[in-house]
C-alpha cells in the first residue's frame, strides 16, 4: 500500500508541474486571474463530484465535522492556485515555481509548530542548501531577483506557504474517508474560497466563452483534479517527509515545460540552483542516515 501511495503522490505532483502552460496561455488570451480560477474550480467541482457518484451512500456515514475539516484542507488548494497563478502574472513561470518550492523549509516549520517535531542538524543543512539553490536559481548574484516585481515574489512565497499547508493537511484531515469523496469535499472548499475572493468577478464572468472553459479544463485537470485526488489517495499511506520528496518532481516538470512550451530561457546557473533545491529535499528527508537521529542520541544518553 505504501508503494501505491507513493506512486499516487508522485503522479499528482508531476501533474501540477504542467499548470504554468495553461495559466500563461490564459493570461495571454486576456483572461483575468479571477476568471481562470473560477472556471477551473467549477470544472474541477463538477468532475470530482461525478467521480464520487458511485460512493454517494458513503457520504451519509461521513461526519459533519470531517466534511468541514476536509473542506478546510481543500481551501489550501484554492489559495495555492490564487497565489501561484497570480505570481505568474508578474514573473516568469520558471521563477514562480522556484518560489513555490520554498514549501520544503516551510513544511519543516509547520511540522515543528503543529507536530512538535524539532528540526535536527540535517534539516538546517537542508535549509542552507535550499537557500543557496534559490540564490542561484533566482540569479540574485547577477541582480536578477532585483528586477522582478515585488508583487510576483510575494505571491510566489505565499503559494509556497499554502502548498506546504496542503501537503500537511491532505494527510491529516479524515484520512479514513474514501479518497474520491475527500477530494470532492476538498475542491468544494476550494471553490467556495475562490468565489469569495473573486466575488467581484462573478457578475461579469464570461459564461459563454468557450475558449475560457477549454483553457480552464486544462488547468483544472493538472492543477485541481489530479493533484488533490491523487494526494488524497496516496498521502495517508506515506510519511509527510516522503510526500515532500515525491512532490519535488513538480519542479523539473514545470521548468522543462516552461522551456519547451513557453520558450522561457533557463541558464546553467539557474539549473544548478534548481539541482541544489532538489538535492536539499533529498538531504532533508534521508539525511538522518548521514547525520544520525537526535532521538537515538538522546536514547543512548
From TrEMBL:
Subcellular location: Endomembrane system
Membrane topology: Multi-pass membrane protein
Transmembrane segments: 38-56, 68-87, 93-115, 122-142, 148-168, 180-200, 212-230, 242-262, 268-287
Domain EamA intervals: 4-137, 151-283
Swiss-Prot/TrEMBL keywords: Membrane, Transmembrane, Transmembrane helix
InterPro entries: EamA_dom (IPR000620), EmrE-like (IPR037185)
Family (UniProt): Belongs to the EamA transporter family.
Name used for this protein in its record: EamA family transporter
Amino acid at each position: 500500500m505504501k508503494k501505491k501511495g507513493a506512486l499516487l503522490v508522485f503522479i499528482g505532483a508531476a501533474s501540477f508541474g504542467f499548470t504554468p502552460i495553461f495559466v500563461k496561455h490564459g493570461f495571454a488570451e486576456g483572461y483575468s486571474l479571477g476568471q481562470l480560477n473560477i472556471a477551473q474550480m467549477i470544472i474541477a467541482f463538477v468532475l470530482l463530484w461525478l467521480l464520487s457518484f458511485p460512493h454517494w451512500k458513503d457520504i451519509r456515514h461521513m461526519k459533519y465535522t470531517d466534511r468541514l475539516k476536509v473542506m478546510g484542507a481543500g481551501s489550501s488548494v484554492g489559495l495555492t492556485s490564487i497565489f501561484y497563478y497570480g505570481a505568474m502574472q508578474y514573473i516568469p513561470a520558471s521563477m514562480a515555481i522556484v518560489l513555490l518550492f520554498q514549501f520544503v523549509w516551510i513544511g519543516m516549520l509547520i511540522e515543528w509548530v503543529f507536530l512538535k517535531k524539532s528540526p535536527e542538524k540535517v534539516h538546517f543543512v537542508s535549509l542552507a542548501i535550499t537557500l543557496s539553490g534559490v540564490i542561484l536559481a533566482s540569479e540574485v548574484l547577477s541582480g536578477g531577483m532585483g528586477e522582478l516585481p515585488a508583487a510576483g515574489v510575494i505571491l510566489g512565497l505565499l503559494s509556497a506557504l499554502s502548498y506546504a499547508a496542503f501537503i500537511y493537511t491532505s494527510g491529516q484531515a479524515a484520512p479514513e474517508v474514501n479518497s474520491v469523496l475527500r477530494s470532492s469535499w476538498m475542491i468544494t472548499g476550494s471553490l467556495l474560497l475562490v468565489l469569495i475572493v473573486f466575488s467581484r468577478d462573478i457578475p461579469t464572468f464570461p459564461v459563454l466563452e468557450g475558449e475560457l472553459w477549454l483553457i480552464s479544463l486544462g488547468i483544472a485537470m493538472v492543477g485541481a483534479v489530479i493533484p488533490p485526488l491523487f494526494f488524497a489517495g496516496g498521502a495517508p499511506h506515506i510519511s509527510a517527509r516522503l510526500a515532500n520528496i515525491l512532490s519535488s518532481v513538480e519542479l523539473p516538470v514545470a521548468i522543462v515545460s516552461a522551456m519547451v512550451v513557453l520558450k522561457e530561457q533557463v541558464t546553467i546557473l539557474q539549473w544548478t540552483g534548481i539541482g541544489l533545491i532538489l538535492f536539499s529535499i533529498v538531504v532533508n528527508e534521508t539525511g538522518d542516515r548521514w547525520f544520525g537521529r537526535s532521538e537515538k542520541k538522546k536514547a543512548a544518553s
